[in-house]
Amino acid sequence: MSLYDNKEKVEQIIIDFTELHECSICGDYFTEIENLGCWKCKYHPGEYDPYTESFTCCGEKYRRPAFNYKCYGHVMTWGVKDRWDHIKPLSSGCTPCDCKTTEKSSVPYKDIDLSSIAQLIPYMTQDVRDRPGLDKMKLVRRCERPNWAKPSQDAHMSP
């Protein structure tokens, strides 16, 4: 979308950016105009390693309730009042990102130049300068965090 596009194209872009979506990561509802560069969700950029039972990006492990018999905590049966009050086995993530829709959207999930959405900026309730995803003249969809490489098996073998 250009700053001087025709009225029909601008209206279609506004409709696309104000359409309500459900996030596939956190389950919240959002519109793209309020989602761009806000980083309200979190994700794990690494993979889950079954051998160390943790994520490769942050080292997070599954949470289990702490009882006297720790090995049986995960199979504990809950009483009536505690039935729905479980702790989540994993956090939602370690690295911030924008919400991602569960359905197909006309707004792609990639970084967006501010010049391409210049006409939408006055409609945003959170100022563009206050969004953590602002990087020079574009809105970044997710924070990139370096993945630490796993040690190769060759490094452990002697020559």
Could you walk me through the main structural features you see in this protein, from its secondary elements to its overall organization?
By secondary structure, the chain is mainly beta. The protein folds into 2 domains: 17-45 and 94-144, no CATH class; 46-92, no CATH class. Helices cover 9% and strands 14% of the residues. It has 2 helices and 9 strands, in the order αββαβββββββ. The protein has helices spanning 7-17, 32-35, and strands at residues 20-22, 29-31, 41-43, 48-49, 54-55, 95-97, 112-113, 134-135, 138-139. The strands form 4 sheets. Strands 7-9-8 form a 3-stranded antiparallel sheet, with no helix packed on it. A two-stranded antiparallel ribbon has the order 1-2. It has a two-stranded antiparallel sheet with strand order 3-6. It is elongated and about 60 Å long. The termini are far apart. The model is unreliable at 151-159 (pLDDT under 50).
